Amino acid sequence: MTEIDGVLAGKAQPSGAERVVTSPLPTVYGDFQAVGYLDRTRGDEQVALVYGDIRAARGEGILTRLHSECLTGDAFGSRHCECGPQLTTALREIAAEGRGVLIYLRGHEGRGIGLLAKLQAMKLQAEGLDTVEANLALGLPVDARDYGVGADILHDLGVRSVRLLSNNPRKREALVRNGIRVDAQVPLLIPPCDDNITYLRTKRERLDHDLPHLDAVVGHRV
C-alpha cells in the first residue's frame, strides 16, 4: 500500500470523481504520486500529483495548484500565455515545500471552450481583439471552467484547507463554495513578455486576476 493509498483507504468516493489508480511518478521536479480519477459528470480523465506526506499536516494548509489544461502553453511552450511557466513553477514550489498537491484539470482548454475554439480565438487576438472579445465574437462563454471536480479530488485526498497557488479569485471562490477552506492565496506571478503582456493585462482588467507585477511594465497597450 502506498502512502496515498493509506490516506484514501476506506474513504467514500466523492460524487463527481472516481479514483482509479495511484502510481509513482518521478519527475525532474521531484518524486510525486500520480492519482488518476474519472470525472463521472463530464467523462474527463483527471490527475492529481501529490508530493510528500499530506497526512503529516492532517490535510490542513496544503500548498495546492488547480492547473487548467493548456496544450499550447504546457506542452509547446507558447508565449501567448503564462500557463507553461506557471505549471513548472508550481511543481517546483510544491516540491520545495516538501508536500503539496497539483491537480491538472483536463477539459479546461481555452478556459473551457476546447482546443480548436481556443486556436480560433487566438487568431482573432492576433487580428486585434482581446481574449474576452475573441471568445464572445465566436459566440462562446468568456470562461466556461468548473472547478467542482478539483474540490472533489481534494476531498478524496483528505485535504481540508489549502494555500492556493493562483492569481484567479474564481478558483478560491469555487473551492470555498465546494467545502474546501482557502487559508491563503499564494501569488504565481510570471514575468511577462512582449507576446503576452496584452493578454495578461486583459486578464487583470477584465477577468479580475491579481497581477500587480504588470504595473512595472510600460510601453504596451492594455
UniProtKB/TrEMBL annotation:
<feature type="binding site">
    <location>
        <position position="86"/>
    </location>
    <ligand>
        <name>GTP</name>
    </ligand>
</feature>
<feature type="binding site">
    <location>
        <position position="166"/>
    </location>
    <ligand>
        <name>GTP</name>
    </ligand>
</feature>
<feature type="binding site">
    <location>
        <position position="171"/>
    </location>
    <ligand>
        <name>GTP</name>
    </ligand>
</feature>
<feature type="binding site">
    <location>
        <position position="81"/>
    </location>
    <ligand>
        <name>Zn(2+)</name>
    </ligand>
</feature>
<dbReference type="GO" id="GO:0003935">
    <property type="term" value="F:GTP cyclohydrolase II activity"/>
</dbReference>
<comment type="similarity">
    <text>Belongs to the GTP cyclohydrolase II family.</text>
</comment>
<comment type="function">
    <text>Catalyzes the conversion of GTP to 2,5-diamino-6-ribosylamino-4(3H)-pyrimidinone 5'-phosphate (DARP), formate and pyrophosphate.</text>
</comment>
<feature type="active site" description="Nucleophile">
    <location>
        <position position="145"/>
    </location>
</feature>
<dbReference type="InterPro" id="IPR000926">
    <property type="entry name" value="RibA"/>
</dbReference>
<comment type="pathway">
    <text>Cofactor biosynthesis; riboflavin biosynthesis; 5-amino-6-(D-ribitylamino)uracil from GTP: step 1/4.</text>
</comment>
<keyword id="KW-0378">Hydrolase</keyword>
<keyword id="KW-0686">Riboflavin biosynthesis</keyword>
<feature type="binding site">
    <location>
        <position position="131"/>
    </location>
    <ligand>
        <name>GTP</name>
    </ligand>
</feature>
<dbReference type="InterPro" id="IPR032677">
    <property type="entry name" value="GTP_cyclohydro_II"/>
</dbReference>
<feature type="active site" description="Proton acceptor">
    <location>
        <position position="143"/>
    </location>
</feature>
<keyword id="KW-0479">Metal-binding</keyword>
<feature type="domain" description="GTP cyclohydrolase II">
    <location>
        <begin position="18"/>
        <end position="187"/>
    </location>
</feature>
<keyword id="KW-0342">GTP-binding</keyword>
<dbReference type="InterPro" id="IPR036144">
    <property type="entry name" value="RibA-like_sf"/>
</dbReference>
<feature type="binding site">
    <location>
        <begin position="109"/>
        <end position="111"/>
    </location>
    <ligand>
        <name>GTP</name>
    </ligand>
</feature>
<keyword id="KW-0547">Nucleotide-binding</keyword>
<feature type="binding site">
    <location>
        <begin position="65"/>
        <end position="69"/>
    </location>
    <ligand>
        <name>GTP</name>
    </ligand>
</feature>
<keyword id="KW-0862">Zinc</keyword>
<dbReference type="Pfam" id="PF00925">
    <property type="entry name" value="GTP_cyclohydro2"/>
</dbReference>
<feature type="binding site">
    <location>
        <position position="83"/>
    </location>
    <ligand>
        <name>Zn(2+)</name>
    </ligand>
</feature>
<protein>
    <recommendedName>
        <fullName>GTP cyclohydrolase-2</fullName>
        <ecNumber>3.5.4.25</ecNumber>
    </recommendedName>
</protein>
<feature type="binding site">
    <location>
        <position position="70"/>
    </location>
    <ligand>
        <name>Zn(2+)</name>
    </ligand>
</feature>
